[in-house]
Known about the structure:
By secondary structure, the protein is mainly alpha-helical. The protein is about 65% helix and about 0% strand. The chain has one domain (about 20-110): 434 Repressor (Amino-terminal Domain), CATH 1.10.260. The chain contains 6 helices and no strands. Helix 2 packs across helix 3. The protein is elongated.
Amino acid sequence: xxxxxxxxxxxxxxxxxxxxxxxxxxxxxxxxxxxxxxxxxxxxxxxxxxxxxxxxxxxxxxxxxxxxxxxxxxxxxxxxxxxxxxxxxxxxxxxxxxxxxxxxxxxxxx
Length: 110
């Protein structure tokens, strides 16, 4: 019997996590909107928006709703991207990986 590999695009992950701020930056550039102008539109300071765009601050539910109101891109997309970024970052954490491995070994004997 032949074993075939199945292409599963939903299982693909980038080699390094992509913060949703990077996607927002690309979106603003594509729309020709400056970060400063967008910050004013959504009612946050330029420095806060810049920190989000540079991955130094998360896209919170509140920011996601503001981004949705300004761009039409649903808030759940931004929140899901942030959650996925958080998950990938945690999975890449060596200390956490060791703890998770120990947990798996502990429950394997149950």
